[in-house]
Automatic annotation (TrEMBL):
Cellular component aspect of the GO annotation: proton-transporting ATP synthase complex
Keywords for this protein: ATP synthesis, CF(0), Chloroplast, Coiled coil, Hydrogen ion transport, Ion transport, Membrane, Plastid, Transmembrane, Transmembrane helix, Transport
A Pfam match: ATP-synt_B
The family this protein is said to belong to: Belongs to the ATPase B chain family.
Gene name of this polypeptide: atpF
Transmembrane segments: 26-49
Name of protein: ATP synthase CF0 subunit I
Major subcellular site: membrane
Gene Ontology MF terms: proton transmembrane transporter activity
């Protein structure tokens, strides 16, 4: 029991931990500042980022739907072209004597133009998707950068008062002067 009371008696005799001052260790303060900024970005930016990504997702889904509709139209055109091809083949049997080679050329051209149209529509669909994805990524990057900059400026403006600002400037001028004397 005496040891417990002795520990309380000696609490008043402990030396003080130190006085308040500036931490001049740039690496340690930058890590602390960076962690605070990242924490603020994550806390405030996740909702905005989520909304942006949801909007982008909807736009991309709409683009995919539009591309699928275009694909469906192309398939309909292909079916019409196949029907036309069947008619041309029937006519080819009737006119085989007069111009078999001419009919074959028309058939080949019709098939080739239909496949080219389908390829162009598929390429357009994939280009549109890639473009929308890149645009979404760029918008997200820009918003995140803007929010980070606004958060950092807000943090700096709220934390620095005039006296602290003057002390920081004076300390930096002193460090710059000491660095200049060393290099001279």
């Amino acid at each position: 029991m005496k040891n417990v009371t002795d520990s309380f008696v000696f609490l008043g005799h402990w030396p003080s931990a130190g006085s308040f001052g500036f931490n001049t260790d740039i690496l340690a303060t930058n890590l602390i500042n960076l962690s605070v900024v990242i924490g603020v970005l994550i806390f405030f930016g996740k909702g905005v980022l989520s909304d942006l990504l949801d909007n982008r997702k909807q736009r991309i889904l709409n683009t995919i739907r539009n591309s699928e509709e275009l694909r469906g139209r192309a398939i309909e055109q292909l079916e019409k072209a196949r029907d036309r091809l069947r008619k041309v083949e029937m006519e080819a049997d009737q006119f085989r004597v007069n111009g078999y080679s001419e009919i074959e050329r028309e058939k080949t051209n019709l098939i080739n133009s239909t496949y080219k149209t389908l390829e162009q529509l598929e390429n357009y669909k994939y280009e549109t998707i890639r473009f929308e994805q890149q645009r979404a990524i760029n918008q997200v990057r820009q918003r995140v950068f803007q929010q980070a900059l606004q958060g950092a400026l807000g943090t700096l403006n709220s934390c620095l008062n005039n006296e602290l600002h003057l002390r920081t400037i004076n300390a930096n001028i002193g460090m710059f002067g000491a660095t200049k004397e060393i290099t001279d």
